[in-house]
Amino acid sequence: MLKSITMCAVNPEANACHSGGIDSGFRTKSFRKCIPLLGNPNSEFRNSPSSPRLGGPTGRHAFTLVELLVVIAIIGILVALLLPAIQAAREAARRTQCTNNMKQIGLAILNYESARKQLPLAYTPNYTGNQGSGFCGATSSFSNPSNGQQYHFILTFILPYIEEQAVYDRIDLKKAWYDNTQNSKGTTNLLATAVDLPAYLCPTAENRPGKYTTDYFCIVDISDSNYCVDVESGSKLTNQKRNRERLAGMLTDQPNPIRKISDGLSKTFMFFESAGRPNNYVRKVLKGEMASTTRSSSNPATPSVSIPHKDTQWADDRVYAIWGNVFDPATCPITSIMNCDNYSEIYSFHPGGAQFLYGDGSVTFLTEDTNIDTFISLFTAAADDLVTVAP
Fold this sequence. Notes:
By secondary structure, the chain is an alpha+beta fold. It folds into two domains: 46 residues, no CATH class; 281 residues, no CATH class. Helix content is 22%, strand content 15%. The protein has a four-stranded antiparallel sheet, covered by helices on one side. The chain has a two-stranded antiparallel ribbon with strand order 1-2. The protein has a two-stranded antiparallel ribbon with strand order 3-4. A hairpin with a 2-residue loop joins strand 12 and strand 13. The longest helix is centred in the N-terminal third of the chain and has 52 residues. The chain starts with 16 loop residues before the first strand and ends in a 12-residue tail after the last helix. The N terminus is likely disordered.
């Protein structure tokens, strides 16, 4: 058995090794190893290509090009794997905020009803034209007298209940929302409503500062003519028979107490998404901005007021919709309940569906393949119809 191992340089003068110690090297616990001083320029062991390089700058190992490319490729793969997860997490957070916005709107509407004993009007003034009554095929109709109110939307009426009292106090309800004459509050309604309200905007939709728009709206009724032709007749999208007079939703242009929602608050839609305006999207493809329009003014000097984009601002009385009025049947047929065209239709930027606010203040995400008969049953407030297919 070897008791010690001595490693010495060829040059005997550079070697100093004895059993009592090591003058130019170091001793291990298991054996003695004599290594010349690293600083000795005459040491062949130090300068040997096969010798270990101990310490100093020459001990650093550089990356080769292949190794660098491999590291970059691995990082790229990790980023590709993590990016969808990060985007999904961000969308989940945005959808949660959107849900909260809709719940706040629902709570405001219910608080309004609690304070005034009737639901807020969807828009003013009310519609005074003929409306069909009875079942499909009947010729009877009815009409409502005018309530004589100025042009406003429900989102104005509930401002005090979503902590926007300051905005509400600057609006004169005795003048139209777009009126550009001085009102009783010392400003004009057109200026008072020219404000972006985060509570009315879905964070998933693109940012549109200075447009004073809303991503939420109400649908007041179902077009009785379209319903009879396209739903009950023709393709026969339903087996239920509904009275045309009862096709209205929960929020209308008529004062309704909450007890008239006989189908149940938890089974009746209240508010919907219609996101992205004033930009017009058709199946997630941007088609441009919505057209401008003019409205009549009470100012003789300026008989008309120019509105940059029609039916888009949160205060605009024309933001509401009537379901079934299909503008382009070839692109967006009546069976396309949502996410086809964001002009006066249900539209969301959440993947695969949209958020729906119910009468009890709850919010549910429904998918794009929701059954049309189910949608109609959940929309009508007092039609005594049944939800035949779970949403």
